[in-house]
Amino acid sequence: MRTFLTKLLFKLPASFLIRWSGKEQIEKGYRKLDPGFQYLLKLMDNMGVKLDTTKPGAELRKDFEEGRGLVSLPIPSGIRTTDHIVKSNGAEIRVREYSPESIGNIYPAVVYFHGGGWVIGSIETHEAFTGFLAKELNAKIFSVDYRLAPEHPFPIPLADCEAAFNWVKDNALDLGINPNRVSVGGDSAGGNLSASLCIKRKQEELSMPKAQLLIYPATDLTLKHPSMDEMAEGFYLTKASMEYFRDNYLEDKELVKDPLVSPLFADDLSGHPPAVVVTAGFDPLRDEGDQYAQALRQANVEIYHRTHDSYIHGFVNMMLVDGVDYALKRICDDFKKIF
How far apart are CA 177 and CA 168, in angstroms? Predict the structure, then answer.
């Protein structure tokens, strides 16, 4: 009931939402912040939902799990879930399968890596979106609970993601999926891991994913792009939090330009899987995502680049805001063309 009422709140006229945010409509250049996100940022601030980078990773992780209830929705109806345990370099990780109830015997799959700066986030924080993907794409989604930094720094999260991808491919028939239609996807750090996985597999001459879904991906951990400073504060993800995430993820700062850490530094992206790249206008990661889309295009990779100039980082998990569900459907429409 609370979710229903909150969704109705975000359907009120834009003028109401802007007024309740306590500010004039926020503008950056030609971009105007969506009134729903402007009000949501105010609500999050009032409720203390923020990325407190003075805390160690384990505490920040706990805060993030507790705060997600403000913006999260339940898994869509008609989606069933099954948990699997997958071995990865001597450890065991959890992979949750999301399947439409109407699914047939052999369907495409997406191995999904959640966002959270390689430090926070989980299967649970992203399950409304992964469930949405399963329903909208009519595919099986395998959400990966990869190990997190700082306890498990690079390259462990990437290795876990690849182990999950290999497990899905190797067990495709038992899982009821087409082994030739296994794609990867992720948001933010998960987008980084998806792109990095493709780079790694090309380097090692291994089979590639069918397609890649890169949602506001982190592609350059030098953090030198103009949007990193332009959107440094005030839009949930901050430059300070990106510095915190990077410093927890990388034990060796000399790795910052390694293509497996910063995919934008890859010498050659030709031969990579077709991609959907999604960026948000009020996001510190905007420019590096836009540049990665351009780099894929220049490498003659089939690419669909969808920009959301009025949105903030993290919007796929903010379906309470009016219009986001429509935006996610359009992203899925693009991905259906390639996966």
Answer: 9
